[in-house]
Amino acid sequence: MKIIHTADWHLGNHFHGHDRLSEHAHFLAWLLDTLQQRQPDALLISGDVFDTPNPPAAAEALLYDFLTKAVEAVHGLQVVMTAGNHDSAGRLEAPAPLLHRHNVYVRGAVRTTEKGVPDFDHLLLPLSTRTQPEAVCVCMAVPYLRSGDYPAGMTTEEGTAWFFDRLHKALARTDFKQLPTVVAAHFYAAGASVCEGEHSERLTVGGQDCVPAAALGRGVAYAALGHLHRAQKVLGGPCTWYAGSALPMSFSERDYRHGVQWVNITPEGKAEVESLEYHPQRGLLTIPADGGAATVAQVFDALANLPRREKNDDGATWPYLEVRVKEEQPEPTLMHNVMEALADRAVHLCRVVRVRTANEQDNAARDVLQESGKPSLSPLQMARRAFQNRYGSDMPEALVQRFKTAAQASEKEEEAQ
Q1: pLDDT score at 332
Q2: Exposed, middle or buried: residue 201 (CB in 10 Å: 0-12, 13-18, 19+)?
Q3: pLDDT value, residue 373
Q4: Measured in whole angstroms, how far is the alpha carbon of residue 144 from the centre of its chain?
Q5: 396 secondary structure, DSSP code
Q6: How far apart are CA 164 and CA 171, in angstroms?
Q7: CA 361, CA 326: separation in Å to the nearest integer?
Q8: What is the Cα–Cα distance from 50 to 164, expressed in whole angstroms?
Q9: What is the mean pLDDT of the chain?
Q10: Apex CA 261: angle with CA 260 and CA 265, to 5°?
């Protein structure tokens, strides 16, 4: 059984105000080409198909155009698509009856039976190869689990373990219980590497939504996970992998590799995994490259070395740019100067971050609070102290004079009232 595992497309995403429709179209074109070359039996899409519960129409059109082309390009291909925490379960499932006719199986929400318990049978999908009608493995297609999908009072870890335990028991009552099992699910697995700087996966603070991979249960040949954007293997359970996101979702993910996992399930139920790398249409560029902070002079030296825009270049492949500046003194015209420096450069500016060290921030806040309680401390003295703590130097004389002028104007205004 040959499978391609992908997840976290986030169709409809905007990156710092930049529409990414062309980037997603580029990824799906690459994926379609990969399907045609590899000819898998199944494609597993493990959640976060869209970036928001109410995606733009263009993003939905992109998805359904891709699905149509995929099943036409690979005869007999089966597609399993589950919902993630970013998706609207109902919206994803709305065209499910029509998609089912084309071997596309959508599981957006956990249904319940007349008795009010989860319909586990609905989540068990026997899969065959493209050339044989008999099932050769079973897919547990599990959408993002919410607290209502398992007994009240359970933690995320307890509820997930309970859910998969019941799912395995349901499988044991079917005619497919002897077949290899694969899982398509969407959660935060313990031990996996997460994005430290910007939690674009929307993880719960404190890791309360973290679940050990062992909760998937025994006898799973391969677990195709979504939710975390770094492509990686997860330890501590069955053969468990994150496919990673189709595109980088934050500047903290600039070093991530993107692509899909190629999985071969042997007749003995073993998974052979190969990572197929994809190079996004637009990369991420940070100044300085180490993600720290550079002085104003260093920043403008780096901007001057960026490639120039070429005539008739539509900018489709220009990287997204983040500039991180350590201010040694106030720079009120910094943004204007940066925009001017980039006017003829082949980049898409996303943000300029003014960086201060934690000690500078703490010292400035503490000292200003302490000194503000002293009646003898003038506003200028407070300003000098705050400047010293923030920039590590004395306030320039020109700024002192500007401050005095503003203070005098404020005093006259108060006297006039």
Answers
A1: 86
A2: buried
A3: 46
A4: 15
A5: P
A6: 10
A7: 13
A8: 25
A9: 90
A10: 150
Q: For residue 353, which amino acid is it?
A: V
Do 280 and 317 touch, CB atoms closer than 8 A? no
pLDDT interval class at 337 (50, 70, 90)? very high
Question: Quick one: pLDDT at residue 301?
Answer: 97
| 364: pLDDT strictly greater than 70 | no
Burial 121-145 (b: 16+ CB within 10 A, else e): eebbbebbbeeeeebbbbbbbbbbb
Give 261's contacts (C-beta < 8 A, 6+ positions apart): 4, 5, 6, 224, 231, 241, 243, 273, 274, 275, 276
Record the pTM.
0.85
What is the per-residue pLDDT for 391? 60
Q: Which residue has the tokens 């994926």?
A: 31
Is pLDDT above 60 for 368? no
Burial of 212 (0-12, 13-18, 19+ CB in 10 A): middle
CA dihedral 188, 41, 4, 45 (to 10 degrees): -50
CA–CA distance, 209 with 271 (Å, rounded to integer): 27
Distance CA 5, CA 245 (A): 11
Residue 113, token pair as written in the block: 């039976």
Q: DSSP H helical segments within 39-136, as ranges?
A: 57-73, 89-93, 96-100
Contacts of 267 (CB under 8 A, 6+ apart): none
Q: For tokens 């979702």, what's the residue?
A: 249
Site of tokens 């070429």: 310
Residue of 149, 139, 145, 164 lying closest to 80 (CA atoms): 139
